[in-house]
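Agenda item 2: pyridoxal-5'-phosphate complex prediction
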Amino acid sequence: MEKDVNTRQVPIYRDAAFELFDAATTVEAFERDREKFLGEGHYIYSRYRNPTVESVAGQLAALEGASWAFLTQSGMGAIEVALSVFQEAAHNAPWLFFSEIYGGTHTYVDEVLVRRRGLEVHRFLPAGDHYDLEALRSLLASLHPGVLFFETVSNPLLMVADGREVIRLAREAGCRVVVDNTFATPWLWRPLADGADIVVHSATKYLSGHGNLLAGVVLGKDEALGRAVNHYRKLTGHMLSPDEAARLGDQLRTFPLRMQRHCHNAASVARLFHDHPAVERVFFPGLPSHPTYREAHALFGERGYGGMVSFDMAGRDAGEKRSRRDRFIEAVREEVVLMPTLGNTETTLLPIEAVWGDRYPEPGMIRMSVGIEETDTLLSTLRRALDLTL
Ligand code: PLP
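Presented output:
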């Protein structure tokens, strides 16, 4: 096999296992120091280490400012690994989760952490439409939690927590911090630089960006924690396949470009909705009318406010709002896909009632993941559809 090909692509090593040396060296190396042997560039078995997967993990670590990164087969895999490593260290302390987190994570917390593993879990609720950090400080002081978990941008109301301050308060209270940075992405904020212990992503979303693969990533800086994450991940079989990792790596090349356009388009769409009579209310953290605009501006600076926009159709009553919502979705269905995901290059939307039921009482609400289409074309599609509902 040709070893030194002058390629600029990440080679895909599909080996499930790698060829070892002669028996004596292998036995000696294994026995002498197994971890060291595995850590010195010797590939043995792809669930332990794979060169393709490691190369892409390295790209992601650079993006998040991490010292280590491990790829998992989905975002949920990343969350399960990140939370499980703290279980031994923080088993006797209660754990604190922001209430506004992805539904799958909620269910995981209830069914796995609480019901199966017996952890004591508390929720930190927002004060209406924003997070009250004084209330968080008091809760941390009274509860002494071992772990705090939050998402940078909440779903579907897109509330931004002042992440820097949340981490500072948690650390002051001696609590480890895990941040799900899927919605914000490292383009907008890098929580490890501000003291988070672990960052997780559903790389299914913006990091891969094309809606054609499932992946997750766990990232951090602390070396001991990295070893613990890697050990747990190997034991429990969390690993991305080399083919999927290579595709993620390819798609990451356009990540900064895509994020710039997502942010630009979302800001333009939010303004269109804000000014249109068919829309009653827009939830976009980049609009000064959003309850967490100040926090978003402080955290994200000039980079933008992400690619998500939620909005509520205008109407005299629930029936009219629902009917306007449905007519809007029907009018854009050729160009804007109704789909339960986000972060794709194409604009997708979801009626909020379909996923969250009556949790958000306005039935005209829609969550839109704004894509990277040509801005004016996208705006005219949406404007035409809104006009049709009047
Ligand atoms: N975290 C967030 C914020 C999500 O929105 C999702 C999925 O929608 C996940 C985690 C889970 O990721 P995956 O679907 O890749 O397992």
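Discussion summary: The chain has a mean pLDDT of 94.
Owner for follow-up: CH.
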